């Protein structure tokens, strides 16, 4: 990516891959939940990468995250270890930017979601909701309202996880714009995408699984993703 | 009223109906090749789906590429750079078209829905946003989007994504460098002005010609593999091999004396090279079914 440091470029591609993961759930339905979780982790890690903007910190965080997850899964270490340990290297950065701590925590919880199941979803929702508000523009509020509105209707972890990845992509859009990558945000496209995704999620929550509702959600997600990766220039 | 009519006309232009028609041919062709009955309702659904999905994605592509289009002589008069339609109107039209496409696809099956959304993903995010302006091999990603209508047509007929459908999609995928790279060579000045990298402009003529011939070989292989796996389409395989060989000879000749005029001739030869597969394969399938019925 021209004019863009490697890890930023990878973060942008990570966001795009999260979209691909969500898309794949349509035809790989046996593993849909796993794919959604992986997409969620990818989207949240990409957001953290953009927030940290430091390869060294990112490597330290990721290494500790993997070690902590392994210790929880294989050695039966307390979950709190996995939640707190990876945050250590990013503490200095988090002192000036609270969203870094929240994003790191969110990524950890999303990873725990994969290895430990749905129990960690609740704190994850809280963390990501706060992150979305902190990096917010008006769109986040809409998506979050939808998230809250659907919970009483018995939203499954998968749908909530999907919804949150939309929030993350929208959040990442603002960050990409600030980071100097050759991308800009087209808020009209992001808005159209978020609106469609929200309609799809509400439909899924109210009437259960249907191709149309899932299709609208994925269409919205892809539109929102495309809205934060609008190329600004050709390389010179 | 005139304003509304002119806006609608501008939006239709934004969807590039002629390009959509060629991709629609691959969709119909793959549908019939799957052996599905010629159900008029299904054919109507495919027609609406094809025009809304391909047209919607194409229009969104132009929405994001309006800055490039305004720099190229060939595209500067398109509806968005020329101001005949506003960005808001274009986006509204795109969103409506894509909603229709998703709605229609979801009434067929989830595999068709997948191909619609995958087409959007690979065309817009994979090609327009992440590769088009950054690598001369952008079309390697972009071609995946172009092969989705064929895969969708097969999925609509067969009810699933199976090997023969993937092979037909591979035919379209492997054909696209012949179509795009030689057009870009012909329009070299435009592409250089807009600073869009293309294999035919950034690589040595021998390299991109060799890459084109490799793609053509893959195309021929895919057509024959389709014939072997389905026991149908041998005539199409034979004739398309003749066309592919002729195209390869032209490309080889181009390496010896490259010129814009020859690039244009090769570009014009590309469409029949693809069309022959998607016309003959379904015709053979229909003929064999008629033969079975008459017995």
Q: What is the N-to-C order of secondary-structure elements of chain A (H for helix, E for strand)?
A: HHHHHHHHHEHHE
Mean pLDDT across residues of chain B: 91
Task: Estimate percent helicity of chain B.
Answer: over 70%
Q: Would you report the number of β strands of chain B?
A: 0
Within CATH, the superfamily of chain B carries the name UbiA prenyltransferase
**Proportion of β residues of chain B?**
under 5%
**Gross geometry of chain A:** globular
CATH architecture of chain B: Orthogonal Bundle
Low-confidence stretches of chain A: 148-155
Order the strands across the largest sheet of chain A as they lie in space: 1-2
The protein's oligomeric status is: heterodimer
User: How many DSSP E strands of chain A?
Assistant: 2
Tally of helical segments of chain A = 11
Gyration radius of chain A, rounded: 17 Å
- Identify the overall geometry of chain B: globular
How far the N terminus sits from the C terminus of chain A, by CA atoms, comes to: 12 Å
């Amino acid at each position: 990516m021209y004019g863009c440091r490697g890890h930023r470029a990878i973060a942008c591609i990570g966001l795009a891959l999260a979209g691909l993961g969500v898309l794949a759930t349509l035809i790989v339905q046996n593993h849909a939940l796993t794919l959604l979780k992986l997409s969620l982790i990818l989207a949240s890690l990409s957001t953290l990468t953009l927030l940290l903007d430091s390869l060294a910190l990112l490597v330290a965080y990721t290494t500790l995250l993997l070690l902590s997850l392994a210790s929880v899964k294989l050695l039966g270490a307390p979950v709190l270890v996995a939640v707190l340990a990876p945050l250590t290297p990013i503490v200095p950065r988090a002192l000036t930017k609270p969203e870094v701590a929240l994003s790191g925590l969110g990524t950890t919880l999303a990873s725990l979601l994969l290895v430990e199941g749905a129990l960690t979803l609740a704190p994850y929702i809280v963390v990501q909701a706060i992150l979305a508000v902190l990096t917010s523009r008006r769109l986040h509020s809409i998506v979050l309202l939808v998230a809250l509105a659907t919970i009483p209707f018995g939203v499954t972890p998968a749908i909530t996880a999907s919804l949150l990845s939309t929030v993350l992509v929208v959040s990442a859009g603002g960050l990409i714009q600030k980071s100097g990558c050759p991308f800009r945000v087209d808020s009209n496209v992001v808005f159209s995408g978020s609106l469609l995704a929200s309609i799809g999620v509400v439909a899924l929550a109210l009437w259960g699984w249907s191709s149309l509702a899932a299709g609208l959600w994925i269409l919205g997600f892809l539109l929102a993703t495309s809205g934060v990766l609008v190329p600004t220039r050709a390389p010179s | 009223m005139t304003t509304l009519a002119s806006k609608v006309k501008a939006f239709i232009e934004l969807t590039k109906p002629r390009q959509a028609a060629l991709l629609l041919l691959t969709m119909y062709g793959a549908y019939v090749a799957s052996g599905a009955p010629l159900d008029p309702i299904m054919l109507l659904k495919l027609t609406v789906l094809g025009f809304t999905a391909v047209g919607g994605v194409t229009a969104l592509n132009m929405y994001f590429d309006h800055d490039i289009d305004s720099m190229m002589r060939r595209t500067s008069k398109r509806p968005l750079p020329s101001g005949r339609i506003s960005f808001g109107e274009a986006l509204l039209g795109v969103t409506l078209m894509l909603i229709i496409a998703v709605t229609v696809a979801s009434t067929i099956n989830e595999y068709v829905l997948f191909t619609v959304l995958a087409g959007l993903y690979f065309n817009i995010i994979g090609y327009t946003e992440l590769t088009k302006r950054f690598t001369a091999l952008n079309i390697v990603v972009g071609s995946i989007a172009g092969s989705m209508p064929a895969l969708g047509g097969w999925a609509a007929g067969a009810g699933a994504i199976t090997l023969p459908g993937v092979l037909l999609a591979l035919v379209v995928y492997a054909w696209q460098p012949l179509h795009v790279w030689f057009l870009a060579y012909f329009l070299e000045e435009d592409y250089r002005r807009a600073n869009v990298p293309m294999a035919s402009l950034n690589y040595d003529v021998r390299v991109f010609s060799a890459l084109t011939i490799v793609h053509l070989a893959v195309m021929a292989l895919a057509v024959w593999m389709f014939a072997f796996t389905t026991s149908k389409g041998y005539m199409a395989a034979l004739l398309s091999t003749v066309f592919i060989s002729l195209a390869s000879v032209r490309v080889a000749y181009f390496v010896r004396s490259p010129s814009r005029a020859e690039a244009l001739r090769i570009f014009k030869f590309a469409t029949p090279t693809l069309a022959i597969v998607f016309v003959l394969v379904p015709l053979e399938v229909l003929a064999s079914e008629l033969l079975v019925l008459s017995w």
